[in-house]
Write a structure and sequence with these properties.
single chain, alpha+beta, 6-stranded mixed β-sheet
Length: 171
């Protein structure tokens, strides 16, 4: 039986917040600027690694950094959501693998784990990030396998197979 009343609204709010978190990872992995902007409110702030500023400036900084990535993949887990009316305080764990060109070390693979500590706000029925702090709990770097794997066929917006898939009906 589906919940009704306040329970149904809380469930819908949690689903919307989780969907926003998933959009963030899709946007970063695919370097999809419009999608990345859609997870933040225009007045949002972000503290992420060496970056501390507006979400708008973070998008510019992050996409420029993303240009050095040959490939990356993010996963999200253990999403805790504390609903507080039109606000929600969340903690979400993430894992990120990045194969990228480092100016000092050359080609590297970075394995990062940490948490997004977010303040979400609902405005006009839509949940987005109003404030984010990224906490890093694990970092490991290694030298990657030489050459690009022929198995890699993921890419960036709009060339990644995802975008053709989204426009088709069915598989």
């Amino acid at each position: 039986m589906m919940p009704t009343g306040p329970d149904a609204q809380g469930l819908a709010d949690r689903v919307a917040i989780r969907a926003c978190l998933a959009r963030y990872h899709r946007a970063v992995d695919r370097a999809d600027e419009a999608l990345l902007r859609s997870v933040y409110w225009p007045d949002a702030t972000e503290r992420h690694a060496s970056f501390d500023g507006t979400a708008d400036a973070f998008v510019e900084w992050g996409l420029k950094l993303r240009d050095s990535f040959e490939a990356c993949a993010h996963q999200i887990s253990n999403v805790m959501i504390d609903l507080r009316g039109d606000q929600a305080v969340t903690e979400a764990l993430f894992t990120s693998l990045q194969r990228r060109r480092d100016p000092e070390a050359g080609l590297v693979v970075d394995h990062l784990c940490g948490r997004y500590l977010d303040l979400f706000e609902a405005r006009n029925g839509e949940w987005r990030i109003a404030r984010r702090l990224v906490v890093y709990d694990w970092f490991e770097r290694r030298v990657p396998t030489p050459g690009r794997s022929p198995l890699l066929n993921g890419g960036r917006f709009p060339d990644d197979p995802l975008y053709a898939h989204l426009t088709r009906q069915g598989p």
